[in-house]
Design a protein that fits this description.
It is built from two helices and six strands, in the order E-H-H-E-E-E-E-E. The protein has 106 residues and is of the alpha+beta class. The protein has one domain: Protein Inhibitor Of Neuronal Nitric Oxide Synthase (2-Layer Sandwich), CATH 3.30.740.10. The chain has a four-stranded antiparallel β-sheet with strand order 1-4-5-2, covered by helices on one side. Helix 1 packs antiparallel against helix 2. InterPro entries: DLC_sf (IPR037177), Dynein_light_chain_typ-1/2 (IPR001372). It is found in: Cytoplasm, Cytoskeleton.
Amino acid sequence: MFEEKVRVFRTDMPKNIQIYATELAQKALDLHKHSDCYSIARHIKQELDEAYGEAWICVAGGDFGSCITCLSGSFILFQVEGLEFLIFKDGKDGHESKEGAVGVKA
């Protein structure tokens, strides 16, 4: 089952968007080499922008840190096939935003 391949570390997304985001990650991994993190992240970002409006940000990789401000209800940090994904919607201009720090160490 696909759900068994996904390990969610943290999220505040509604369940339906979590499922969509993790399915997009799997599809991106099928379409691109695992080492091409830029293309993987770009694919996910474009699909989320189309489905849920612009301002989505996606980071894919195995060793990164971040300090972000994001729209509440848009954050997820998860792993698929050994690659970590940080996805959120920019909350800089929103009144429902929050700040947080996350890191992933390979």
